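User: Predict structure, ligand magnesium ion.
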Amino acid sequence: MSDSSWLSEIPQLDRHQLLDIRKTLDGAYRSFSREYGDNIEAFFDPLLTFLIWFEKLLLGSPWWLVVAVLAVFAYAASRSWKLTVGVAVAFFLIGFFGMWDNTMRTMSIILVSTLLAILIGIPIGIAMSRSDRVQSTVTPVLDIMQTMPAFVYLIPVVMLLGIGKIPGVIAVIIYAVPPVIRLTNLGIRLVDKEVLEAATAYGASPTQRLFGVQLPLAMPNIMAGINQTIMMALAMVVIASMIGVKGLGQPVLKSITNQYFTLGLMNGLAIVALAIIFDRISQSYAKRTLQNLGGH
Amino acid sequence: MNSHKNSRSNESSSSDDTHCPNKSKTPLIRIKNLYKIFGKDEKKILEQVKAGKSKDEILAETGHTVGLSNINLDVYPGEIFVIMGLSGSGKSTLIRHFNRLIEPTAGEIEVAGSDVMQLSSKDLQDFRRNKMSMVFQRFGLMPHRTVLENIGYGLQVQGVKKAEIKQKATQWLETVGLDGYANQYPGQLSGGQQQRVGLARALCTDADILLMDEAFSALDPLIRSEMQDQLIELQEKLHKTIVFITHDLDEALRLGDRIAILRDGVLVQQGTPVDILLNPVDDYVEAFVKDVNRARALTVETVMQPQICRISAETIGEAVLQMRKSKEDFGYVVNKDGYQGVITQDTLDNVETSDYSNVLDASLLEDVPAVQSDALIETVIPEMLDNILPLPVLNEDGEVEGNLCRSTLADVLSDQPSSEEDKKSTYA
Ligand SMILES: Nc1ncnc2c1ncn2[C@@H]1O[C@H](COP(=O)(O)OP(=O)(O)OP(=O)(O)O)[C@@H](O)[C@H]1O
Ligand SMILES: [Mg+2]
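Assistant: Predicted complex:
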């Protein structure tokens, strides 16, 4: 062939070179997971124990107790009877159509993931708000986390930890944590400069400023972040079912591959119901924190 | 209100050189060669500022803002020190240096003998807790805390016990006239009420120094003068040292013991209110004072003529002798009961020499009313119009101190500062 072929065809590594690259990387990753895999699993053991305990708690309690607790929770957060009754009815129907166990499994995963996302996300958000350097390093990472297709980062997680609950939770957290981080950062940065100055002028320590002024005033924004995080966690649950996370996602997955229309529809609706409920509750709670700020 | 104003003007005019009344005391706050430049390359730009480049030049060439340039000032214990200037002249920037909310580019800040720039962050925190409190232009109240919690904030930061905070905060709440609002949130209060909460919060920590950044600017004129009265009243009881920012000269004249005027980050004039009013140092200051109602801002003693002829004679003969010694053709007759009236040269000329041994009695005197030295000029205008002779000015003890004649008054009240005051101008 002619020498100028690179003009018509893109220059490419030949197959041996590509294979070599893959081999080295795969080898390195495999030996890494072989070496540290056990340690990492051991590290996540307490989390697994907690997850299993929480799931058993939800599954083991009588249905009416769970519904009652959820209703009380909904009322406490929103102070709205309409929402409270809606929650009770929705859960009753979910049970009535035979999706109770899966719903409880999904809920336990979502609650635990959201809780962890908050525990991880808020401190990172705080760190970002305190330093422009941290902000400019973390922001692109968050951008990548949110744009990268979820399947791509499932791969290393699964290779490291296998299939099951823990990789599921980790995948959900990675997918759902950016909004809390972003909005915590934003919320703190938006706190009225003069209010913060006043705290400083009266000799408040950095801790007193953070807990006494910045976090309370950023709360409406942080709550909005938490709300988005919950929503994203729910969205991720279906994808996570591909790596063996039990719950409402699995029947949906099954009906896609087997074309079970009704099964897919009902489980899909249950997910939507959960989404609406979580959304309403967290939003009305966020609204109430805003009111408490003496705002509008 | 008057008593406050008066007691002060007495002090200030007693020293002739227009300087501060507390000259003997050591300053509580001392600012030396303070510079603040906003931007990335503070230190480099500092050299250019010191070399004499103007604020505008530096902004155009380098994008840096000169916030403050070579500020020197002393604030003495117990006084109300007013900082004035147009918007953007650096008032807020300056006051924020006093408790180091802003780090200076260069300069010294000394408060109560200690160098604020050398404090560690822990010491700075203690310093802010105990030495100073601050009232903010836009209130700076915490919207998530109730009014009472806001007032007690300073004490809470210090770790004072809850019961004590509540007791003190309640007391200040009542002092500023907000009883019943304890459990409201700041968002539920009007602007004036919020500002009172800000004031109560500042007073609650019982710090010696009070920094007030345009504390009353956001208020309507009525509430504003009410707040000014309240501040004056409080100051009479508490004797704090107050640094007060305003861009309103009337407010400055009303509250200030001394006034400093800022322009583009430079301190152009510092002095007593009367000094500023009568001897503006350049066009900028003059523009400031032009619209002030002087009759309402100045007291009689600031404009009176101190050289007068006092007649303390018992007999007509002595009176004639005393009158001859003075250049005037009239004299103010005083005896142990104080001011009696005016005797003119004409009257004395008409007395027969044989009657010189007679007692100088009331029938010979003109009945000219006296005015008090601490009265505002405005209040004595009617008497001025009724009498052709200059009015005697009495001090607190009833002694004749000087007189006030129509030409002086006309001079002072006319728009231009009187001609004998040649103006020095630092700005071309
Ligand atoms: N953080 C900052 N960064 C950059 N420039 C600033 C900053 N703060 C103040 N400046 C500048 O410093 C100058 C003085 O501002 P300052 O707020 O002290 O004015 P002021 O006299 O308080 O005005 P006002 O009466 O409007 O409150 C202005 O030119 C402003 O642009
Ligand atoms: Mg200001």
